[in-house]
Design a protein that fits this description.
The structure is a single chain. This protein is of the alpha/beta class. The chain folds into two domains: 121 residues, 3-Layer(aba) Sandwich (Rossmann fold), CATH 3.40.50; 65 residues. 46% of the residues lie in helices and 12% in strands. The strands form two sheets. Strands 5-4-1-6-7 form a five-stranded parallel beta sheet. It has a two-stranded antiparallel sheet with strand order 2-3. Helix 10 links the parallel strand 6 and strand 7. Helix 3 packs antiparallel against helix 4. The protein is elongated, with a radius of gyration of 18 Å. It starts with 5 loop residues before the first strand and ends in a 13-residue tail after the last helix. The model has no long low-confidence stretch (mean pLDDT 95).
């Protein structure tokens, strides 16, 4: 494995996991069909606009509420708080690995998300050396421009960056951009891959990992 001078990592699926409990609670309270919030929020073009910074996170959420209220009644607005307050669940094992990694190399996060990423990281008490939300970059993965912008922000050429993501398409795009990219398959496999980069991380595998 080549020598790297920094790491760039995905966020969701690695450090944060979504159970959608907030959306499910809001749907039940509002009498919405199962999966309605996901369809109106994440399958609508407005989400892509928020992901590349055309809309703020709040503007996107307001648009979701407006469309839901139009189709299911104004009272729906009163029951969306659970969805909005659900920021996912952090992965303690990965957060600990991150803490150790930052003692060896600078670590950045590159996530396809709205401008809510910094607040979400603070909410989960997750610290990176560099934070790149696609909304702030104005471009999202798998565009090579996203990876290049993150590398430039870290002050490193893509060829000196290791990258991990749980989405194969994004891994392929990162590889094509010059990063040493690998598919994330879980924390134990991640730590094993890191050792090939010369990054010795202590990790105790548990039965549920």
């Amino acid at each position: 494995m080549p020598t790297i001078d920094g790491l760039l990592l995905d966020m969701n699926g690695l450090f944060r996991h979504w159970r959608n409990t907030g959306a499910q609670t809001s749907e039940q309270r509002a009498g919405l069909p199962v999966g309605a919030i996901a369809r109106y929020a994440y399958s609508h073009p407005s989400y892509r606009l928020a992901r590349v910074g055309v809309l703020t996170d709040q503007q996107w959420a307001d648009d979701v509420a407006e469309r839901l209220a139009k189709d299911y009644g104004a009272a729906v607005r009163e029951h969306l708080a659970a969805w909005r307050s659900d920021r996912g669940e952090s992965d303690p094992a990965m957060v600990e690995v991150l803490r150790q990694l930052r003692g060896h190399v600078p670590v950045g996060v590159l996530s396809n998300c709205t401008d809510a990423l910094p607040a979400d990281l603070e909410h989960h008490d997750i610290e990176f050396d560099f934070v790149f939300a696609s909304a702030h970059l104005g471009v999202d993965k798998p565009s090579p421009l996203a990876f290049r912008a993150a590398a430039e922000g870290m002050g490193l050429p893509p060829t000196k960056l290791g990258y991990f993501d749980d989405e194969p398409t994004f891994v392929a795009a990162a590889q094509a951009t010059g990063l040493h990219a690998h598919l994330f398959k879980g924390v134990a496999d991640f730590v094993a891959e890191l050792s090939h980069f010369g990054l010795p991380i202590k990790f105790e595998k548990h039965s549920n990992q």
